[in-house]
Amino acid sequence: MKPQRLFRFIFFASLTVLFMYGCVKQNPTPATPTCVSPKTMITKIPAKIVAGERESFIAKPGSEGENLTFSWTALQGQFFPPDKPSTIYVAPQSAGTVLVTFQVSSDCGPPDSDTREIEIMEPTSTPTTPTITVEAHTPTITNMTTLTVPSPEPSIPDITATYVASCKSDIGVDLVKAYTYQNPNYNSAPVGTTFPMNWILKNSGRCPWPVGLQWTYVEESDLRQSDEQIVLESSVAPSEEITITASFLAPSNAGTFESTWQLVDGEDEPFGPPITFTVGTYAITPTRSPLTLNEVEDKGGGVYLATWNFSETLDQDEYFAVRFWAADKPEDKHSLTWTKDQQYQLAVNNEHFPEGLYYLNVAIVSDWGLPGGNDGSWTLVYETLPKPVNVPYIPPTIPKGDVTPPPD
Fold this sequence. Notes:
The chain is mainly beta. It has three domains: 41-121, Immunoglobulins (Immunoglobulin-like, Sandwich), CATH 2.60.40; 168-282, Immunoglobulins (Immunoglobulin-like, Sandwich), CATH 2.60.40.10; 292-391, Sandwich (Immunoglobulin-like). The protein is 8% helix and 39% strand. The protein contains two helices and 25 strands. The strands form six sheets. Strands 20, 21, 23, 24 and 25 form a five-stranded antiparallel beta sheet that branches. A four-stranded antiparallel beta sheet has the order 1-3-6-5, covered by helices on one side. 15% of the residues are buried. The model is unreliable at 369-375 and 402-406 (pLDDT under 50).
């Protein structure tokens, strides 16, 4: 090869190598991001806590990244809040051993947790001050001792109260049900009588209700409460329901009455919205002919015939309700049927009605004048005394198609 051609070949080959090196350097291969599984460790937790006291717990997540979730759990006690690395733990009221677990989770791998054991101790009693007896003679003072009065300890803020106070912007109080007596389907009472009133309230907020809230009326009503104060004696956690009961005095006239109540705190400040409910009252007319129930006829095989006497005609919205219940479960009294007739035949079996003593009675019921009357609400006008029904052992019946023929 000639020297000139060889020189040009080497020159262009060098330019090509330099060009390719520059492209590779300007476009490096991107590094593959790594995803590290979460790690955690509890960094601050005491070994012993006095029952009912509060302590600060701190955990270190041990890893950084997005979509990290935290949770504090224990079989006893409460956390405020339970989903942050730093939390306040309220110890249970009883002594014992509690396992506290902090867990961190992410999208990068399985969750990691750290569990510690703490001892819940009984509160120490206040020591009694010993009595010092001074002899009746003048002592000789040989040394002068200077007594130092200790400064009072600084007050510790109530962390739980501070946390609950911060929740007042998210208080939720819902009325699940308001009913009279012991049956959630009742919402009425006879005129002029004292009757139990029940409310089922639900904490629909994100923070617990503190102890000491009062359930009180905020608007005057013809329905009068017989009791003085209704105080919540325990805390109510979020999504938890409680039942409150009080004695009411029904007005002397029949009708439907509204009453508005509300939870208030120890300073009479409203805690949640006001709640309005209705109660119906009815009059039992003594001039009507009596309703009498005859003895229940046992026809055998679990079949019974109930008959009753009533010389008047039921109103259009009135019915006879035949009710049946076990002797040891009066709260399960329920209607078998509503009818305009004056007899009813029922058939029972041991699958639904085990062998034992039961009671049957007949009531006159009405669905007039109550709000929401088409959702199962009704008014009891009158009911008879119950009659006993003894349900014996009843052999189960086998359908004809299931009978196995005898062998040949």
